[in-house]
Amino acid sequence: MITFFDGGKSRRGVRMACMVIITLSSSLLVLHSTSAQTRQQWRDSLEVLNAQISKDPQNLHLHLLKAEANINLEQWDYALAEYGKILHADGKNLAALYFRAYVHTQQRHYDLARVDYETFLRLQPTHFEARLGLAHVLQKMGRKTDTFDELNRLVQMFPDSADAYAARAAFETEQKQYDIALYDWDEAIRRRPLHSGFVVSKADILISLYRMDEARQELNAAIKRGVSRYALKEWLDKCKK
């Protein structure tokens, strides 16, 4: 699973909010519509694809499918080899660039991942997930200013996206920039008012600042909107202490 903006000491509420970003990025691993497969089914698919590629080695689509199977089997080096073949034949293949960046990230080759994301974005500058991926890589490289710049750009390009605000808020929270983080959690909640992860992330900051009444008001307002009380129970209990 991709870990997004995980400073190692993140509070649980922040991690919960980040899950929406994690899920968003992870879901892109499906190159085309398939049902969930077991590892054995992926191995079987890989065997079939290898046979097809031996008959048609120039077929880039088959290489993309093979790389997908490699990723699902966590065969990172094999996936990199497939994407390298594809990009050697077609240097502007967006799928290969995007997923090679993902594989590089899994292998902690952040400098190489950054190059692939930036190449991808020169070709497709308004791709949300690629910009999010680039921000993640920049954060992993310790480039805080560049990370903020990329997250600011993400919000500017996608002003209606709750996920854009949540991504920036999560990073701001980890940097202990609580005032602007609270603003961004508010913007995320305004765009997706029933998302419990956003609500508890804001409440978590308020609790950490001993602003218990505000946290309680935020949680109760969320319950009135229709957020599950059970999902907020831990934070409601904290407000009583």
Order of helices and strands: HHHHHHHHHHHHH
Low-confidence residue ranges: 1-35
The share of residues in extended strands comes to under 5%
Task: Give the count of helical stretches.
Answer: 13
* Envelope shape: elongated
What class would the helix/strand composition place it in?
Answer: mainly alpha
Largest sheet: none
Q: Report, as a whole number of angstroms, the end-to-end distance.
A: 34 Å
Number of strands: 0
Radius of gyration: 20 Å
The average pLDDT is: 87
The helical percent reads over 70%
Can you walk through the features of this model?
The protein has about 240 residues and is mostly helical. The protein is about 75% helix and about 0% strand. It has helices at about 10-25, 40-55, 60-70, 75-90, 95-105, 110-125, 130-140, 145-155, 160-175, 180-190, 195-210, 210-225, 230-240. The two termini are about 35 Å apart.
What is the secondary structure topology, with strand pairs?
Layout (H helix, E strand, L loop, with lengths): L11 H16 L11 H17 L4 H13 L3 H14 L4 H13 L3 H14 L4 H13 L3 H14 L4 H13 L3 H14 L4 H13 L3 H14 L3 H12 L1
Helix pairs in contact: 1-9, 1-11, 2-3, 3-4, 4-5, 5-6, 6-7, 7-8, 8-9, 9-10, 10-11, 11-12, 11-13, 12-13
